[in-house]
Hints:
Blueprint: H1 2-23, H2 34-38, H3 51-62, H4 65-74, H5 93-120, H6 125-142, H7 150-167, H8 170-183, H9 187-190, H10 195-198, H11 204-228, H12 241-248, E1 257-260, E2 263-266, H13 271-285, H14 290-310, H15 323-339, H16 343-360
Antiparallel strand pairs: 1-2
Amino acid sequence: MLILFVLYWIVAAASVSGSLGKWALRDGEQNFGIEQILNEQASRPFVYRRLLPEAADFAERITPQSIKLYVSDKLSPHRTFARASAAGDPKYAFRYVVMAYLCLGASLLTLFVLSALLRDLGFTRQTTVMAPMAFVLAFPFLQTVGGYFYDSVELFFLSAAALLAVRGYWIVLVALAVPATLNKEAFFFFVPSLYPLLRIRRDRKTALAAIVATVAVSGIVNAWIKWLYAGARGDVAHLQLLNNIEKYFYLPTYTQFEVTYGMVGPSGAFLGTLLVMAIIVIRGWSTCPLVARQHLIIGAALNLPLFLVFCAPGELRNLSMLFVGFVVLLACVSDSVSSRIPLASVDAKRTSNMDDAKLSA
């Protein structure tokens, strides 16, 4: 367990470092920079994402001045990341460190949660360890066109919600909706895709009640936040449909590059990125557990229209409702390759493991 923790810490640190090196906390941006976020002056919808800023404010209020000065001096990201200019400003320094390390903690927890989820779905030990690592390391590449402090935290909440659903812990799932929605309001739309996962251990009536309750709690939190910041500048959402229609029929959209992990890599809807994703989906779909396929189908039905209408072209991080299911598909591919046995045999073994889990429940 200690070795796994160390390994996952290294992976999480690398992933968050890749994100901070690429985007920092969007320092200096007029509409959604970290300075504007912490001053509660960001434009909508960015001002709605309050979980980490409020946690940082709370930490600053309760931490002795001597500790704040020490932490700000020794751990400041501006010493490492050129873009993290606000971390050198005493007004934001301590809170900047808190938010950066909360992102690290979220990434670390995501690795363990995804590993537990894959284990519950019957994957091999090797795959349950390696598949989450591969995805989290690739995450900064998905933070293309834009990346924000709430992205890695959102991935944790989506993963945790899926694990709670698989294990049938619906009361905890309902409670999770509060911080998850405070982090990003898109959690509201993710919840219905959890229904097939809840059905592993809960009957139809309980699963439906859990979904309705979770959606209701998320909706209430969402409405409250929007009411709280109704006077903020900007729009509740940015319409991008016409822009997307134009750009996705424009060939250069698929041949762009940007710097990730300090080196040149794909940007936006890069053709190579889309090809790799398509290969994983095609290779993994036939052996993917039925409940995970259903989860992905519902997620795609909700996420893809929202992505086309509200998200900038190639902003892959906003396909987040599909990320948990994609990790499952990645695990399917990993199992089929590493076991060196026919895909049908892998699927049969996994189905047997899930049936055993249902019986034990």
